[in-house]
Write a structure and sequence with these properties.
This protein is α/β, with parallel strands linked by helices. 38% of the residues lie in helices and 12% in strands. Helix 1 links the parallel strand 1 and strand 2.
Length: 413
């Protein structure tokens, strides 16, 4: 590891000196929409990512995952020579801001791993010049931005530190970056002003607050959404246990009643952010965030409740069960933290066989064609409400549809 307190090392002479800004982790789900938005705004962007396979994919004009509206922007950026691809910390650009898309993960005990952020920054420091703007972009544990500023000062470094949280829906980042306000914060007036000037290039509106407030804004947003899902999932399980039709209940509740228009449908609340960010908030609150912890129990428990209910109603030990959709949400190909896999692992303990399919996911070699899964299964479970399943032929097989998504299927649960 590079010594973070060492003096900046001369950068190799290359096109990196021409970049207007660097996005570290620029080949990821947070990075790519940001890179393409700034390139579309006329900036030359250094896409810095350790995953050389992802960089090669981008160089070829292809995207490594689904991001709606990104393909034409990528082609245009490549044609206009707006992208520079680098894979080492030593290749970050000393001209312009550096945006870091590495967030704070949680460990197996659901505690935030602050060291992941520090290790990333330590690797970059020898190649950053004093006076550069360093922006944290992904979710961080509350207080991380202030900690980083103090840490750099202890090392005798004079970098401007900002936190500008990513807050777009995965798969629709391109659209939302150009349509939604951007939250900006800085640990000094200079850092704040430079961050404002940068994000004014791509955002229609800016909201400037203090770093701690920006960190909470990101966590509160995701935790609130996660709690919303928990509320509807809890209602669903209560109605199911009473033998009532939850879809009919929600239709009655929401009909011409605007105060409930945002009530989501029940389903698998998953993905790499909602659960993790809720647990970060719980850790910060010294485990006094009972509402968030209850939401975790409800949302994660929905899968287990589903399996228990099926075991009481059917002899699934003699059944082959097909799972439709393995991505963590509809119309994307990302399986990170998908509850479909928790359901698969749980069912494999009790069912004769479990088959899986997904029209978008390409990273799971166990997936089978849709028609084969339908043909071989005794029962189907809709895990991800991809639009491709809305009118798909399910051959009259019994279907479990927690979402209330399928209209013409033989829904039995």
């Amino acid at each position: 590891m590079n010594n973070p307190s060492s003096k900046p090392t001369p950068a190799p002479q290359s096109r990196t000196t021409q970049a207007d800004l660097t996005v570290v982790g620029g080949g990821g789900h947070v990075g790519i929409p940001l890179v393409l938005a700034f390139a579309e705004a006329g900036m030359t962007v250094n896409v810095n990512d350790r995953n050389e396979a992802v960089l090669a994919t981008l160089r070829s004009g292809k995207l490594p995952f689904i991001e709606h509206g990104a393909a034409p922007l990528l082609s245009k950026a490549l044609a206009n020579n707006r992208l520079i691809f680098t894979s080492s910390s030593s290749a970050i650009s000393r001209r312009g801001p550096v945006i870091v898309t590495i967030g704070t993960p949680v460990d197996e005990f659901l505690n935030p791993v602050q060291k992941a952020v520090q290790d990333c920054i330590d690797a970059l420091l020898p190649f950053l010049d004093d006076g550069q703007l360093l922006i944290l972009r992904s979710t961080v544990y509350p207080g991380t931005t202030a900690w980083l500023d103090a840490y750099l000062k202890r090392l005798g470094r004079k970098l401007k530190v900002a936190f500008c949280p990513e807050r777009v829906v995965q798969g629709n980042g391109i659209k939302e970056l150009g349509a939604m306000p951007q939250i900006v914060s800085g640990t000094s007036r200079e850092a704040e002003e430079e961050a404002v000037a940068l994000f004014q290039r791509i955002a229609p509106e800016l909201v400037v607050i203090k770093p701690l407030e920006a960190e909470f804004a990101k966590l509160f947003s995701n935790a609130y959404r996660y709690i919303e899902f928990a509320a509807t999932n809890q209602f669903y399980m209560i109605a199911k246990a009473a033998g009532a039709d939850y879809q009919a209940i929600t239709q009655a509740m929401k009909h011409n009643y605007p105060r409930l228009k945002t009530l989501p449908r029940p389903g698998f609340a998953a993905g790499p952010c909602l659960f993790k960010d809720t647990m970060q908030l719980a850790a910060f609150a010294r485990n006094q965030f009972g509402l968030g912890q209850a939401a975790m129990q409800v949302n994660e428990g929905l899968v287990l409740q589903l399996v228990d209910d099926l075991r009481r109603s059917y002899d699934i030990s003699i059944m082959t069960i097909g799972l439709l959709g393995m991505a963590f949400k509809a119309e994307i190909d990302d399986t990170r933290a998908s509850l479909s896999y928790k359901l698969k692992r749980t069912l494999q303990m009790f069912a004769r066989e479990v088959l899986t399919t997904d029209p978008f996911v390409t990273t799971d070699p166990t997936l089978l064609p849709f028609d084969e899964v339908v043909d071989r299964s005794d029962m189907l479970i809709l895990c991800t409400p991809h639009s491709a399943y809305a009118d798909a032929a399910l051959d009259g097989k019994p279907v479990v549809d927690v979402w209330g998504f399928l209209k013409n299927a033989n829904v039995v649960y």
